[in-house]
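Quick question about two entries, pasted in order.
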Amino acid sequence: MRVRGGLVGVILGLGLGVASAQTNDDFQKCADPDTGADLTVHYCTRAIQSGQLSEANLASAFYNRAIGYDEKTEYDKSLADYDQAIRLNPNKANFFNNRGNAYRSKGEQDRALADYDQALRLNPNYAIAYLNRGTVYDDKKDFDRAITEYSQSIRLDPNYALAYKNRGNTYRHKGDYDRAILDYEQAIRMKPTDAETINFRGIAYRNKGEYDRAIQDYTEAIRLNSKEPDYIINRGNAYRSKGEQDRALADYDQAVRLNPNYAIAYLNRGNVYDDKKDYDRAIADYSQALRLDSNYALAYKNRGNTYRHKGEYDRALADYDQALRLTPTDAQLYLNRGNVYDDKGDYDKAIAEFDQALRLNPNYALAYRNRGSAYDDKRDYDRAILDYDQAIQLSPTDAVAFNLRGITYRNKRNYDRALADYDQAIRLDPKYTLPYLNRGNVYDDKGDYDRAIADYSQALQLDPNYALAYKNRGNAYRHKGDYERAIADYSQALRLNPKDVAAYNSRGNTYGDKGDYDRAIADYDEVLRLNPTYALAYRSRGMARFKVAKFQAAALDLAKALELSPTDAYVALWLYLAQARAGQDGRVELGKSTPRLRLQDWPGPVVSLYLGQSTPEATFAAAANPDPKRQQEQQCEADFYVGEHFLLQGVKSDAIRLLRSATASCPRSFYEASGAKAELQRLEN
């Protein structure tokens, strides 16, 4: 707050003469607070240059001209005049107070504080100086000292509405929204038509999540001052927080109409278009904001986010880089850049970016969470869990962090801990769909298909258009052997997402489980039409053709699958079987594959058997595993593959015995289960 200095005593003449009428008039206009800034500078300059002012009035003229320069934002000139005024009259508290304001406007906060301190030494009851000193402490984020200053200002002047308003702002900056609202209410009682204070109260209500009360305040502020775009933008932000995007857009449009050169309005409108996935319009608005303000770091950041949402990762990185040039200590920008590298699969670069975010902000829970996700992507599960632990310690109500840690525990096959994390995520946010889906996945892994189906169904109750939940519920029904329901769920997933190749592939597998290989192959054909390089579809189609004894066609598909996925030992085994059954020497291609396969891991021992480097007994021994679930799975696979080995050797009785065992013990969804069934039908008919 600036105080215009008035006339100090009677204008005194110089020497034996008296001041001219012109000088007297100039000085009166120089001191008049209703004189505009340009005219204040004009009249004060004429009075100063007249040479007819007393020392006291000359100090007042410099002081008043300084205020004019302040209003013109010409702070270097105003500071020079305040210096002159103080030199002439160093005992005026308001001179120091206003020079402090000029220093604050220039961002020289310590100099501002020194001047406010001096003003208060000269006048310890100067409420305005306490208020201004509080404002600097707020700028410096020393909120407790700011509140102390505002409180002292209020003690000196209990009707000082601006002190209540500013103290309310500081409480809001501290996150103490209830106290902020109490102060705003006190200020509004004193000045019920102060639109700015009503707007600030709306911000506090929005920060509390009380969007309807915020909208009421913004609407009242707009009624009092319909020409202020900030109030309209703030109401738009509240509508956006409520999910009422069209109302938000209407407000941002109105703000743009009021001020077509207001970059903030374009930025906020871009945010809503991004929410609506109208990415091109979002980018257009962010670009317009940048045309209006080329140093608008937030516009670069948000445009980068939208490019990321579009999958244009290089453009996203370029925008984040530009934002970092403008705000090099913004930890969130490093986090965002890390997210893009993670999206691109460059996990080491992602981790380096998250590291930098944490160097800038060691308590940045989201950076720990996202770095944990990158470590999970790298399959460095122990480091991932350490990061999730830290994120949860910093933010113990973060349901997403519990959900992500649950995923990592599932990847480690620590199903009980995974379930505990999903349970906690659901307790924290019962409407969060992902933990239901992921908990369903764990129950499916554990063979508890009914619980899995219940969780997928809950996810669908929360989001009826959740294609992945239909697909995963289809998997659980398939694993239960309820093929009709599985096919119905896959079909619904495809209605919601007609290009989901995994859903087509899974539906094809289910048709195969039913023995309906024509429909299965039709689904695999559709997968390959949509994605000609989808290795799993070649694998699935090749196995389906194997099961209907189209061994040559099966071998062609499986060869293509192995070309696309050269480290897949199961594909190499099935290619060997298809070629052998087609009358070819499958060991040639199998031998070529071995350098790329991990023969020490299951099913590597089967490869050794087929190459003549091992025995059936050694293969069964290698299938043993301390995990009961994996033991059952590997044993059933050993039954199938060793049975196929005996079949190729012409030992039909042992082949039938082992294939029957595979049919009985393999999970229904395993290729080996349906493969054994098809072989037995050929052998026993």
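Here is the second entry:
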Amino acid sequence: MAAVADFFEITPRNWRDRIAVSTDMMRELSRYADPDELYHVYARRMSQLYPTARQVSVSRRGLESPLFRVTRFNLWKDQLNPYRDTHRLPVLSGGVVADLLYGDEPRVIDDLAIHPHDPASDFLGGQGSLLAIPLFDSGVAHNMIIVTREERGAFRREQVPELVWMTNLFSRAMQTLMLSDRLRDAYDSADFELKAIADLQNSLLPSAVPQVPGLDVAVHYRTANHAGGDYYDFLPLPDGKLGVLVADASGHGTPAAVMMAITHTLAHSTPEPPTKPGAFLGYLNDHLARRYTQVSGNFVTAFYGVFDPAARTLTYAAAGHVPARLSRGGESHWRPLMAAHRLPLGVQAVGELYPEQTVKFDPADRLVLFTDGIADVVDPAGDPFGYDRLDAVLSHAPNSAAGVVAGVLEALDDFADGSAPSDDRTLVAVRGTSLVSGSPWRGRFDQTAANRPDEIGQDLDERHAEPGAYDFDVAPPPVPGRAADHQLAAAGEQPQFQQRDRGLRRRGEVHRHHRRAVQPVQFPLDLPAKQGVVDRLHPGRVPLVPPGVQDGDGQVRQRFFDGRLPRLGPAHLDRPGEEHGPLAVGQEKRGGRFEGASH
């Protein structure tokens, strides 16, 4: 758009042209975010609206009177960027420019006379008139723009006020851009450092979930920012035991991450394997309190448990941590482990004692460890998820460790509905499984199509009647008389299917909660007939009756394997649930084979 010759003449006849020029200029300026580029666009536009011979920008920022720095000059062949090339800008002292800059006032000089020895003679020599516009920051004219014309008396004083406020508004916009640039640079630098800290922190965490016979483990870990104070660890211990540590350092971000790294270092520097949770937490507390937390006021909450799959026990101690949740035998009720709790690590001086508690941890038992960031997740209204909702979610969680973690995370995501996490989140789930040990008996497990429903007096659901036969091993109990120690494992990775088409002999009355096929279990052994006890809480599971194992009342207490699974991997027999009376399992010798029918 062509320049308006009388842009600064405020008369009724030129208002449309002024609006058009102003709009076009603001639209162009809005496209630039770089301060230096924005300045050159503004200078070009102003030279069209308000032509001058020379434009000099000077600054006194960081200097003492009468020093000043020349930051821009329109006649320089190589224009410098004053934001990056400050060290290359000339610094002068005294003279006319110093008087103008330190005067903190707009000035118009109609008859300009510059002495040849004046420091600014190279910039202002030969000019007839001058206009100086101070640029204020915090009430002080740290910068100034000086424009000149060759003719004398060339600047009309009635136009000066509009020039002053226009130029100062542009200066404020430039300062905002410069601050944004500096903030962005600082953020990028800090972000880079935080990412480096986060990478270092992640390297301290376990690289994989431990594969421990007798335990099924799953974990979720997420920091609110790049780095955080949550910490979990798996410590392999002698005799097949596993130590699981979950900790939460006070605070957030880098300070908490540093405390987390210190805790990790201490946890891996114990003189002996940390098989005693109480002694282990005492060791951490002594070193944290002695060297790190007493001055800073930081602390660390922690839960440490030692799982012993062979003894089927969990021994734990806690230091101010949120109570873990325990579920027995896959049941929906979860109870908090409230015993063996003491102050957080680093609060009490050296010598704090942390008691231990030992509980049974049988196959199908589940334990969930977490930090308070799980319960502190908030919805868009700011309401926290809380422990009651967590317990409700756990009551409907799948049996596997991974299923428990996935169920909780899904509930958290639904509850948060896109809200950013405000705290770090750690969730560890452990499920007991059975160990495979001893010299196995070899057998065959048949899944037979339900082709004779009349023999059991009830309709069958063919969805659970998957034909085929699987080989399996049944390990004898390590302690005679403990049927709970029987275990089942796959004899081969690839099951061999074998279609059967024959009826099943019904023995006794079979009660079922669901319609399903009768499935025989066959052992290639000459086993004595036994009376079994069926768990009706797990309909469709096959009772296994190994020889010579019974409780004091003479009845076999059996574990069950869900024969409806299409594949058999390393599996175990779940704990018995509620017992509903005896069932004659249809045992009968047939050429050295044993048959039994499940409900």
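Reply: The first strand starts at residue 54 and ends at 59. The first helix runs from residue 15 to 29. Hope that helps.
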